[in-house]
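pasting input
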Amino acid sequence: MSKFKRPSGRKMDEPRKIEAEVGVIARADGSARFKIGDTEALAAVYGPRELHPRFLQDPKKGILRCNYNMLPYAGDGSRVRPGPSRRSKEISMVTEKALTPVLDLSQFPNTVVDVFIELPQTNAGSRCAGICAAAMALADAGIIMKDMISSVAVGYVEGNLVVDLDGPEEHMGENESPDIPLAMIPSTEEITLLQMDGIVSKKQLLEALEFAKPVLKKISDVQKQAIKAKYELGERK
Amino acid sequence: MGKLLAKEREVVVPGQIISEGMDYLPSTGTYRLKEQVIVNRLGILNVDGKVLKVTPLSGRYLPKEGDTVIGKVEDILMSGWRMDINSPYSAVLPLREASFDFIKKGADLSKYFALDDYAVVKITSVTTQNLVDLSAKGQGLRRLRGGRVIKVDCNKVPRIIGKQGSMVKMINDATGCRITVGQNGVVWFMGEPQMESAAFKAIRLIEQEAHTQGLTDRVKALLDELTKDYKGGKDE
């Protein structure tokens, strides 16, 4: 086929190296760290707990509240103004929508589950890393969820379909590479996050989705294994 | 023929497929998706014949009628007390359930339970919206004075208590501490300072290793180690 080679030398369907662990934040009800390449996300879950202000309460079920935050020194260091921004608000919202479909908070009406996602270091794919970390942290917190959520981006770098774009790849080509962050429920293959930056045809988009599915399933195995590892440590003692 | 894809007493995680085929039945902590049974919360798998059940390893306390819990007085109301029961929901201890004494209208309620007091109470009712009512009338229900209060994961409470209270009894025998364990994961214990600290360490050990086997022996070893230089207090 084409002679295209990725700058990092990875195969087309090869994500960056993944590190995952849970229970990294001692006082949280659940927590996780998910690192993919240079992008690292920490997630802490608190709750279910009482929700204030009260008008936000839902008497039918508990709600999920996510907060995505990139630390000022993350990325290339250009995000020097700390705190919320238009971008972080958007990502918090899509994270919430990506995770909600698997959660069952009907036992906890009027409450909130808070998820805080912090990114000490990023190099593209931060919302996906954040979602992966948040899903693991929610499981660690003992929230009822019908499946894990796994997330990764796919995109076209100089016309070639690749998975998990890193920083340099995102900026290749004349018009930058179209990149599509995805999140999926592995058991049903339902997509819970679908965003796109760039222009691709409908055919290309559908191809990209199919291309990402096996990768997402592999990531979900890594996530599940990481949660189990927390309890295996105790057994070895 | 159905196939079991996980072992009994294995740690299972949400999304894990634990059986294929229609021979196994989902129970708490699991659900069926077509031919598969899938786990929906982190816990330990129990296989009871054909029934697959997950005993949770984490999660907040959900109030249940009949549970004995340890609460902390959060607020004093017109005719009762609002208590924090280490759960997403607070609970109300109404005046008539607080004491066998007659409490006169307009009496100073802080004489019975003051703010920040801890008390052993029983959950008398829970509504669908998780509004909780308490009672302090009954055997073993009382205001707690002195001692220490710690919070543990409420899912580990059965382990801390042990079979027919064996684990609590063991700590009690070794340290001489009086111990009360609330179903909500609040533990109160009182004894001599050094023994309290030994009991504290033992409880934390149980909490951390609740999912493992042979825990009783390890707790016993820890207690022997911690109490070996200090035999004075309890036998006198």
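fyi The interface with chain B takes residues 29-30, 47-50, 59, 62, 102, 104, 107-111, 139-148, 186-188, 220, 224, 227-228, 231-232, 234-235, 237 of chain A (CB under 8 Å).
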